[in-house]
């Protein structure tokens, strides 16, 4: 255990200069975690894909703004590849139509997000594959 007098803690670096900062406002730093939990059919996958497309090019999504463009990997264990591709296409149209992303940003986002398919894997099989 380390103890430090409160006044002796160094001032934090600006978020833009902090390599551990992921989102503005101290929302999440490297080594942390974010979970999105809800029942089937509530839009978790769609939200995740949309947020990932935005965050991968440094654009705010759902009120959460990245400090810089983010590297994104999605672990998909519920929706098959056809369904994920359908989500991607619908979200892409919406992001362009709303002016949230330019076509160049969208192209870069779609090429930079990794989707790991874990559909059908549960328990020990899921953990083994995840490792």
Question: What is shown here, in short?
Answer:
This protein is mostly helical. It is 36% helix and 6% strand. The model has no long low-confidence stretch (mean pLDDT 92).
Which keywords apply here?
mainly alpha, 36% helix, 131 residues, two-stranded parallel ribbon, globular, 4 helices
Describe this structure in words.
The protein is mainly alpha-helical. The chain contains 4 helices and 2 strands; from the N terminus they run αβααβα. It has helices at residues 44-55, 81-97, 103-112, 123-130; strands at 73-76, 114-117. Strands 1-2 form a two-stranded parallel sheet. α1 (44-55) packs across α2 and α1 (44-55) crosses α3 (103-112). The protein starts with 43 loop residues before the first helix and ends with a helix. The model has no long low-confidence stretch (mean pLDDT 92).
Overall geometric form: globular
Structural class based on helices, strands and sheet pairing? mainly alpha
Question: What is the subunit organization of this protein?
Answer: single chain
Count of helix runs: 4
**Total strands:** 2
Order of helices and strands: HEHHEH
Distance between the termini: 30 Å
Strand content range: 5-15%
Gyration radius, in Å? 18 Å
Please give the share of residues in helix: 25-40%
Largest pleated sheet: 2 strands, parallel
Mean pLDDT: 92
Low confidence ranges: none
- Which strand order do you get reading across the main beta sheet? 1-2
Summarize the topology.
Elements lengths: L43 H12 L17 E4 L4 H17 L5 H10 L1 E4 L5 H8 L1
Parallel strand pairs: 1-2
Helix pairs in contact: 1-2, 1-3
């Amino acid at each position: 255990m380390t103890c430090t007098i409160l006044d002796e803690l160094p001032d934090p670096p600006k978020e833009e200069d902090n390599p551990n900062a992921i989102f503005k406002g101290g929302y999440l730093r490297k080594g942390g975690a974010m979970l999105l939990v809800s029942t089937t059919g509530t839009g978790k996958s769609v939200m995740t894909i949309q947020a990932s497309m935005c965050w991968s090019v440094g654009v705010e999504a759902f009120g959460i703004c990245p400090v810089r463009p983010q590297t994104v990997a999605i672990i998909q264990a519920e929706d098959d590849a056809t369904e994920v591709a359908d989500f991607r296409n619908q979200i892409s149209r919406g992001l362009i139509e709303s002016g949230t992303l330019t076509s160049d940003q969208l192209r870069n986002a779609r090429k930079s997000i990794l989707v790991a398919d874990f559909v059908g894997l549960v328990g020990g099989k899921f953990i083994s594959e995840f490792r």
